[in-house]
Each structure stands twice: as C-alpha cells, then as structure tokens.
Amino acid sequence: MGLSRVRADPATSRVQAVTGRQPDRRTLNFAGDIDEQGCPLPMTVEVLRARTKKWPVSPSTPGNVATQLARSRQLFVDGYYTYENFCDAVTRSLQAVEVALRVRFDAGSKVSFARLINRAKAEGLVNDNTHDFLHTGRELRNRQIHATTLPGFTPAIAARTIATSHQLIAELFSK
Question: Regarding predicted confidence, which is higher, 150 or 146?
Fold first, then answer.
C-alpha cells in the first residue's frame, strides 16, 4: 500500500505518514514500547516495528519457520490498525515454535505439539519455566484456532509471548 500523503502532527511536531488507515482506538490506550530508561513510548506503527526488530532471529532458522516468525511480526505491527491482530500474531508465533520443534526433532505431523514440548524439556532444550510457558501457549493457540469468539491480548502480553517464541527459535537454530 502506497502512502497517500504526508502531514505534520502538531501534537508531537513529527512528520507522520498517512495511509488512509485509522488506528484501532483500543490500541491507542497502550504504550508502544518503553525506552532505555523505562519510560513509555507512544503507540505508533514505527514504535511497534522498532520493537519487533529487537526480537532475535537466527540466520540458521529454516525458511518455513522464519516465514511464520516474519508473519507474526507483521501481524503485531498491524495490531495498531486492527487490535485483534495482536492475538493473531501470538498464534502465528506459537505455530512457528511448533514447526521449529518438528524440524529440530525431525518429527512428522502425527506427533502432537504437547509431545514436542515435553521432548524439548527432556532433552534439555528448555527449562521448567519455558516448558510451562509453551504448554500454556499451546493451550492458548488451540483455543484461538477453535474459537467461537475472538479473545483479546494487550500489546504488552502479545509482545512478551512473541519475543519468547523468537528467543526460543533463535536458540534452537543457533548451533
């Protein structure tokens, strides 16, 4: 989508690109990130995009996993316009973790995500906290995939989950 025009934002004296899309009003209730001193940064597409660049990506990550992670980052940024995309971004990042574990263990499609998570713990790839986090994420992902209503996540919760998925996958393929 091309930029339709550029305008100065008098409230912040910054130049904003205007694409014709409006931010989701719910998104504007949150900070986009925090700076080095712990102070909140405004909720903007640029701040969200910069936040995703902090999440590690290993150059050794297989293409199909890297594609899922890239999509989770894009959905996270697009949460600025469509609040539900924060939840969709989490789901996509957890799907990337499942694919990453399948690749790492050379496991077929018949092996459940729960078994993959348990194997990662048994082989020392994840600690107890990450193991529990992944099982919670697996349950969340399953509820999201089979949902009859759309859950909502705050940008901060989504960011933490997606960042953890990125970190785990980067560690799985760093060696």
Answer: 146
Question: In whole angstroms, what is the distance from residue 48 CA to residue 110 CA?
Answer: 36
Q: What does residue 21 show for φ and ψ, rounded to 5 degrees?
A: -90, 145
End-to-end distance of the chain based on CA atoms, in angstroms? 38
What is the C-alpha to C-alpha distance for residues 126 and 71, in angstroms, rounded to an integer?
24
Can you list the domains of the chain with their CATH numbers? 25-172 (1.20.120)
30: its two tokens: 């949150």
Work out the number of other CB atoms within 10 angstroms of the CB of residue 147.
11
Structure tokens at 27: 């998104």
Q: What is the 3-state secondary structure (H, E, C) of 86-110?
A: HHHHHHHHHHHHHHHHHHHHCCCCC
Q: Over the stretch 93-136, which tens digit does the pLDDT of each residue have?
A: 999 999 999 999 999 889 999 999 999 999 999 999 999 999 99
Cα 144-129-74 angle, rounded to 5 deg: 40
How many other CB atoms are there within 10 angstroms of residue 167's CB atom? Answer: 13
